[in-house]
Amino acid sequence: MLFDLLTSRRASRLGLLTLPFLFSLPVVAQDNGQELDTLIIRERQLSADSEQRDSYAAGASTTATSLPLSIKDTPQAVSVITHQQIRDQALGTSGEILHQAPGISMNRNDSNRFNYSARGYSISTYQFDGLLTPIQSYWNFGDTDWDSAIYDRIEVIRGATGLLTGTGDPSASVNYIRKKPLPEFTARVSGDLGRWDQRRGVVDVSTPLDSAGRTAVRFIAVHDERDTHVDNMSHNKSTYYAVLNSQLTPQTNLSLGVEYQHNQTDGAGAGFPMFYADGSRTDFGRSASNNTDWSVFYNETTRAFIDLHHFLANDWQLRAAYSYDEGNYGLTYLFRSGFPDRNTGEGMSAYFADYRGDRSRQDVHFTAQGPFAFLGREHEAAFGLVRMQDKLDMRLATPAGAAPSIGAYRDGQGQAVAEPEWGVRASVDDSELVQSGAYGVARFSLTDPLHLIIGARLTHWDLDQVYFGDARQYSYNGEITPYAGLIYDFNPALSGYASYTEIFQTQNLRSTDGSLLDPITGRNYEVGLKATLADQLDMSVALFRSTQDGLGQAIPGETVNGRPDTQAYRATHGATVAGFEAELTGRLAPGWNMNASFTLANPTSADGRRMNTSHPRQQAKLFTSYQFDGDWRALRLGGGMNWQSGIYRDTRGPAGTTRVTQGSYAVVDLMARYDFTPDFSMQMNLNNLLDKEYYDQVGFYSQAWWGTPRNLRVSFSYQF
């Protein structure tokens, strides 16, 4: 048996190896109450679990519509970074994986906060195993930078996905899919050594608990520590993950899991200043820093989840899922702003802060999905109820007495500064966010080649907040987000689609008086073609356009009143983005995988000016690997390139608003892996082969951050 999986006739008709939530458990399928024989699919393998496939090809996905559709049958652009690509590129964090996805760009705010963008706008919609996890952009403290070892893959649905997420974010929705227990006992240990004293170790054990394989568990432990190319800054991360899957009855499956992650950065800080006080540009080396030896950032998060699936005799499936997160966060640092004197290094301003925070999140999902007959044809429908509650209490202490002198900033380094005595921590953001909604979606088979997907969601959104002592309440109730998609199968290998959805997107951006901006409203349109070119090789092209009112845009040089480290925004109207995407991904030939894409997104304001200028308009990404055959079968070679067009930001300089830029650039990576035995392998990844110098961040608070220089990582893996 290929994957030790059982599936129903209906899944076979859809071209699925297994439904997304079954993964690798040997579940007995039911059809009209009769047990089916094992189904072995030897043609195109569309597994929802990418870990067991040596391929970059994607499988089924429910991220866009809650229906178990192949990528070809989903009326939106869908990209998947599979387990094989994650392994080939040695991607160590969820952020590194996301950066490889087509159309996704990244810039950083400081040492720990990253901003990801798609189709011209920042991404704010994230899911874990399909459960929405709200992330507040200002306080995310690393929420998008988890360890990659616990994830099977990342699915990215570009464009508005308000049907399931409750907000029609026109950028993208990102779904992190955790690893599940494997059907047979497997144990693997691996270790990495790399530049800047990187040391990483992973232990991964999966085993059935009974002879029938109806219950299985998996445990993953990771420790990763490294210095960085930035002086006096190092990262230390630990991750533990345990999950149990059990077939309680032939019709009922249960998944229980818990994960713990502790991430800490010593020497946390911001970027280096881009200007001297006389208005000239600085020219610091790539080790430039803006931190202190006592500055530290940490976050500690524990997540627990329970996921229950039940299969009815009529082929309908019911799901009840609950997730609970608890986190505590800390950031103690000195933020130097302003512009040093070219000769003396004096003149920068100081902001000392000691933050502590606690957060708890609860997510509850109830869904039902299955077929129904109407007018002599078979169709599909899905319904869902969702409720999310996010409580946050952030506290801040400032120096109890006079703040220490920060001295001079020369050659990309600040003078040593004593840590102040901190005063009493006072609450600065005590908030409770509740979002609930109900949705329904149906896939109608109008004719054999023509399918219509139509649905809508009703959303309630409430925020009670005391922000720096100012009590505020925000509430948006009865918001309806419609969704429609049309798919036409020209032949079994080629389909065309068109989709439409409206946009209702809350935003955690503040005006100069500290009030939140009203939600963004608008419309999103998309048309495209998807083709299966060969076994496990897919191509897609898409044209898209969205219009938005209320979109927040940074006010150059303006901060929130009383908050020198918080950017102020204003609402804009008539913003549009139009663009084009093309992707080729999967297996070109036996042993040869590739993921290649080109994207163009042009966000403009009502008066035609470019928006979101700190992210590129154009991107091209390529990574490919080849597993040799015959006597050289033990060797795999690969490489790739990420190219992006230029970016800029209008920022505050000594003489007023100044535009700072980063031109277009490409970063080239190489990899090689050799299997000394079927169980033992060694891999080398050479990143930024040409040692390209570029900015990861440009102009944020008039500062910049150098991208990572050339570095080598060597990995060893042994499987028992």
Automatic annotation (TrEMBL):
<dbReference type="InterPro" id="IPR012910">
    <property type="entry name" value="Plug_dom"/>
</dbReference>
<protein>
    <submittedName>
        <fullName>TonB-dependent siderophore receptor</fullName>
    </submittedName>
</protein>
<keyword id="KW-0675">Receptor</keyword>
<dbReference type="InterPro" id="IPR036942">
    <property type="entry name" value="Beta-barrel_TonB_sf"/>
</dbReference>
<keyword id="KW-0812">Transmembrane</keyword>
<dbReference type="InterPro" id="IPR039426">
    <property type="entry name" value="TonB-dep_rcpt-like"/>
</dbReference>
<keyword id="KW-0732">Signal</keyword>
<dbReference type="InterPro" id="IPR037066">
    <property type="entry name" value="Plug_dom_sf"/>
</dbReference>
<dbReference type="Pfam" id="PF07715">
    <property type="entry name" value="Plug"/>
</dbReference>
<keyword id="KW-0408">Iron</keyword>
<feature type="short sequence motif" description="TonB C-terminal box">
    <location>
        <begin position="703"/>
        <end position="720"/>
    </location>
</feature>
<feature type="domain" description="TonB-dependent receptor-like beta-barrel">
    <location>
        <begin position="283"/>
        <end position="689"/>
    </location>
</feature>
<keyword id="KW-0813">Transport</keyword>
<comment type="similarity">
    <text>Belongs to the TonB-dependent receptor family.</text>
</comment>
<dbReference type="InterPro" id="IPR010105">
    <property type="entry name" value="TonB_sidphr_rcpt"/>
</dbReference>
<dbReference type="InterPro" id="IPR010917">
    <property type="entry name" value="TonB_rcpt_CS"/>
</dbReference>
<feature type="domain" description="TonB-dependent receptor plug">
    <location>
        <begin position="71"/>
        <end position="171"/>
    </location>
</feature>
<dbReference type="InterPro" id="IPR000531">
    <property type="entry name" value="Beta-barrel_TonB"/>
</dbReference>
<keyword id="KW-0472">Membrane</keyword>
<feature type="signal peptide">
    <location>
        <begin position="1"/>
        <end position="29"/>
    </location>
</feature>
<keyword id="KW-0798">TonB box</keyword>
<keyword id="KW-0410">Iron transport</keyword>
<keyword id="KW-1134">Transmembrane beta strand</keyword>
<keyword id="KW-0406">Ion transport</keyword>
<keyword id="KW-0998">Cell outer membrane</keyword>
<dbReference type="Pfam" id="PF00593">
    <property type="entry name" value="TonB_dep_Rec_b-barrel"/>
</dbReference>
